[in-house]
């Protein structure tokens, strides 16, 4: 019974069976096989033509819509009237076959997107008073304590409370290697727990989790809303009206010059070949295929017309923090002021006293110190003065770390020899953390938001595509110019408030210079909304920025922005080719049908040939790629690290997570 139910509800297998039965009937009809005195081609007419006729008449009755299906209906009626049952069956069969091929190709474009839906967890293990219960994932509420076992999918976003494991997050961030998870780490819904059991607290509900938001973003990409799609739909309606008038005119002229039967046959051929199916498919299939292509790179298109708009853009505006840079402080310089201290020792002392700090600068110092030392001494007598700094005892030495004012309040003055270094750091936008040891100034640790390594190449590729880059940032001019110079951007606007970014974009739009805006934060939302195309970084992060954007970069990887720009232009070229092919075949077919060189069967072949060519050409966009996705083989080979003595691969730390890999390209 389950098989029967699935067969009746799934159009794919059912239509395939109908086509096979109809094909067998047409083959039998070619050998003059009859049943109860009737041509067996009637089977193809009923099975393949019935749905077309019903849909056309239903649309006409409900909304007075004259569709392409109505043209086929009139052509079938003409063939039946002339007792050309075999021709009617052939037309119905070819039309249904063409429709099935179109649906299969478009389905391939949507396959990667719909995979997200299938990956959505349906149940969760909820812990209540120490008792585990399995509940529907949609019943999970923020604050619930959940448990996920090895091999299970994380149902909703949350923070690990207990347990250690490795989690496959490739669906969310595109990274092929699993990330280690321990108490305090964040979990994303839809990711796969691989090794150990984890207990965690839910921070989002099912529909608002990472996987849920990705699905919502994808489903909002409605290709039918694109301006060029609406234009093609309007053209198609007028073509249908023109087809009816052309068929009537052909019938009238041929009726007087040739005869009624030939006149009706030619009119039927005109109706079939005039169907604007290829024209209707020319644009949406290309858009859907392009959206499917971008989904593989972690780029989700929220607005169907975004790629059409992007194809005409020649300017790109970057926000700095979190877009061109990592959006988090990193140690860029360590400057000892005491000759007895090395850089490593100074950093180790600062890291040890900052280890209990929750300040972002303190965490960055600890990360850098651990990267160099591996292990840090534990600080005792720890104390923190919010907004100023921290102090503690490390290895018997009293250590202060923080602002200059904090050290001066403890009678530690900043030496004149360091003043010049401070001016240089300020000019580059770096922030100093001053360190004192046993009441004497020991040196400083400079931190700054560092440039993403892929930023210069990305900007260079965008320039190669004719894009003019601009940096719009709220940072100070010195820091903005430093980052812009490193990235290869020459036009900079610093100290920008959200309103200033909006004014800059408005001015460019008024000058006829539409742009693509890339940002990640709440302050970028107005600019993302106003730009010709808005691209938000971190699809699982900034809600307001994502809501304002047309496109979302789930992977937070700007390397694929040039690919997106190039693909949008390729897509529009595909659309123009599709339109030219569909119109060219239509007009050629009409001329041949009017001249009597195309009967209804061959008219159906020509008609569907146009549709198949259009869909096949659009499907090429699914796998189109302008730039290589992976590093060249020679570069990877040069970076490969030999295995350790025990045969294991070395650890690579990335954003606080450890991975095992042979090189940074793999890790």
From TrEMBL:
Keywords: ATP-binding, Cell membrane, Membrane, Metal-binding, Nucleotide-binding, Translocase, Transmembrane, Transmembrane helix. It is an enzyme of class 7 (translocase). PANTHER family: CADMIUM/ZINC-TRANSPORTING ATPASE HMA2-RELATED, CADMIUM_ZINC-TRANSPORTING ATPASE HMA4-RELATED. One of its GO terms (molecular function) is ATP binding. It comes from the Bacteria. It holds the Pfam family E1-E2_ATPase. This is P-type Zn(2+) transporter. It is a multi-pass membrane protein. SUPFAM superfamilies: Calcium ATPase, transduction domain A, Calcium ATPase, transmembrane domain M, HAD-like. The chain crosses the membrane at residues 40-57, 235-258, 270-292, 577-595, 601-624. One of its GO terms (biological process) is copper ion export. It is found in: Cell membrane. NCBIfam families: ATPase-IB1_Cu, ATPase-IB_hvy, ATPase_P-type.
């Amino acid at each position: 019974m389950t098989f029967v139910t699935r067969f009746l509800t799934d159009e794919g297998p059912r239509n395939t069976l109908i086509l096979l039965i109809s094909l067998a009937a047409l083959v039998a009809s070619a050998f003059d096989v009859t049943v109860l005195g009737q041509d067996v081609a009637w089977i193809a007419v009923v099975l393949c033509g019935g749905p077309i006729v019903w849909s056309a008449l239903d649309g006409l009755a409900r909304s007075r819509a004259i569709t392409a299906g109505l043209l086929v209906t009139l052509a079938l009626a003409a063939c039946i009237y002339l007792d050309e049952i075999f021709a009617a069956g052939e037309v119905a069969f070819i039309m249904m076959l063409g429709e099935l091929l179109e649906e299969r190709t478009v389905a391939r474009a949507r396959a990667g997107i719909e995979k997200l839906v299938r990956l959505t967890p349906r149940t969760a293990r909820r812990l209540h008073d120490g008792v585990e219960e399995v509940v529907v994932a949609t019943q999970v509420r923020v604050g619930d304590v959940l448990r996920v076992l090895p091999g299970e999918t994380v149902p909703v976003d949350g923070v690990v409370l207990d347990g250690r494991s490795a989690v496959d997050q490739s669906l969310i961030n595109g990274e092929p290697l699993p990330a280690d998870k321990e108490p305090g780490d964040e979990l994303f819904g839809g990711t796969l727990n691989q090794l150990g059991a984890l207990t965690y607290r839910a921070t989002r509900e099912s529909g608002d989790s990472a996987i849920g938001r990705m699905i919502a973003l994808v489903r909002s990409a409605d290709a039918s809303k694109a301006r060029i799609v609406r234009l093609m739909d309007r053209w198609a309606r007028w073509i249908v009206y023109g087809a009816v008038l052309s068929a009537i005119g052909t019938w009238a002229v041929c009726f007087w010059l040739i005869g009624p039967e030939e006149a009706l046959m030619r009119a039927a051929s005109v109706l079939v070949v005039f169907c604007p199916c290829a024209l209707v498919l020319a644009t949406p299939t290309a858009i859907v295929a392009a959206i499917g292509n971008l989904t593989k790179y972690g780029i989700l298109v929220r607005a169907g017309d975004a790629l059409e708009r992007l194809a005409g853009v020649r300017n790109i505006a970057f926000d700095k923090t979190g877009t061109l840079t990592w959006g988090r402080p990193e140690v860029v310089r360590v400057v000892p002021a005491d000759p007895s201290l090395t850089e490593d020792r100074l950093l180790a002392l600062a890291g040890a006293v900052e280890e209990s700090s929750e300040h972002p600068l303190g965490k960055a110092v600890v990360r850098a110190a651990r990267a160099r030392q591996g292990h840090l001494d534990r600080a005792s007598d720890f104390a923190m003065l919010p907004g100023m700094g921290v102090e503690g005892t490390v290895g018997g030495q009293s250590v202060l770390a923080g602002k200059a004012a904090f050290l001066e309040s403890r009678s530690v003055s900043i030496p004149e020899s360091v003043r010049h270094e401070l001016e240089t750091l300020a000019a580059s936008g770096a922030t100093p953390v001053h360190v004192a040891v046993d009441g004497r100034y020991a040196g400083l640790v400079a931190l700054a938001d560092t440039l993403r390594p892929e930023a210069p190449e990305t900007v260079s590729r965008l320039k190669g595509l004719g894009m003019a880059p601009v940096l719009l940032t709220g940072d100070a001019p010195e820091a903005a110019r430093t980052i812009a110079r490193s990235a290869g951007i020459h036009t900079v606007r610093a100290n920008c408030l959200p309103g200033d970014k909006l004014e800059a974009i408005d001015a460019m739009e008024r000058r006829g210079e539409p742009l693509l805006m890339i940002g990640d934060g709440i302050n970028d939302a107005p600019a993302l909304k106003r730009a010709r195309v808005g691209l938000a970084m971190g699809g699982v992060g900034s809600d307001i920025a994502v809501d304002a954007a047309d496109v979302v970069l789930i992977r937070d990887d700007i390397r694929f922005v040039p690919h997106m720009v190039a693909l949008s232009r390729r897509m529009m070229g595909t659309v123009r080719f599709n339109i030219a092919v569909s119109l060219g075949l239509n007009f050629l077919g009409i001329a041949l049908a009017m001249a009597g060189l195309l009967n209804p069967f061959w008219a159906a072949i020509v008609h569907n040939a146009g549709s198949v060519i259009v869909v096949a050409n659009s499907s090429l966009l699914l796998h189109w790629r302008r730039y290589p996705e992976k590093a060249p083989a020679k570069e990877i080979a040069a970076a490969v690290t030999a295995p350790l003595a025990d045969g294991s691969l070395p650890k690579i730390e990335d954003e606080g997570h450890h991975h095992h890999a042979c090189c940074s390209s793999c890790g």
